[in-house]
Amino acid sequence: MSTRWYPLYQRGNPQLRVFLPNFWMKVIKPKEEIPPNMVHFHVSNEMTEYDVRNYLTKIYKLPVVAVRVEMKNGETVKTQQGDIIKEDDYKEAHVTMEKGFKFSFPEIDTRPGYDIFKKSSEQTKKTMDDLEKKYRYRPGLPTWFEQ
């Protein structure tokens, strides 16, 4: 399935076309403990079990044994104003690989005491200080406009 438009064929033109699917898959970490050869995905709502199997075997060359797909309802939330908002429904795929296959999520925070936001927060503070110094006095600007 693809909604991309391709140029019309004209005699003598080479046919350099690549057909890409409009599908997407996102690996998710399940809440409960699962076997190491099982992986859960959030997938496009249009995907079927057959599409998930082909996507993983043909593109990523993974040894897929079984695929189970289920629709999940989006949460319904009531806002402070009294409005009710429902999140979009999504499809979840549970893929079982061969017996010897082992999937593990990568460790992002391997260094002890490493804070990934520390550097960015320091840089943001420095940038804000520089901007404050630069635009402290702006002639012609009304006083109510400043903070």
From TrEMBL:
Entry keyword set: Mitochondrion, Ribonucleoprotein, Ribosomal protein
Gene3D superfamilies: 3.30.70.330
GO cellular component, one term: mitochondrial large ribosomal subunit
Pfam families assigned: Ribosomal_L23
Residue ranges that the Swiss-Prot or TrEMBL entry lists as coiled coil: none
Cell compartments where the protein resides: Mitochondrion
Source superkingdom: Eukaryota
GO molecular function, one term: structural constituent of ribosome
Ribosomal protein among keywords: yes
Any one of the GO BP annotations: mitochondrial translation
Keyword Amino-acid biosynthesis: no
PANTHER family the UniProt entry points to: LARGE RIBOSOMAL SUBUNIT PROTEIN UL23M (PTHR12059:SF5), RIBOSOMAL PROTEIN L23-RELATED (PTHR12059)
Subunit and partners: Component of the mitochondrial ribosome large subunit (39S) which comprises a 16S rRNA and about 50 distinct proteins.
Family: Belongs to the universal ribosomal protein uL23 family.
Protein name per UniProt: Large ribosomal subunit protein uL23m
Organism of derivation: Frankliniella fusca
Organism taxonomic ancestry: Eukaryota, Metazoa, Ecdysozoa, Arthropoda, Hexapoda
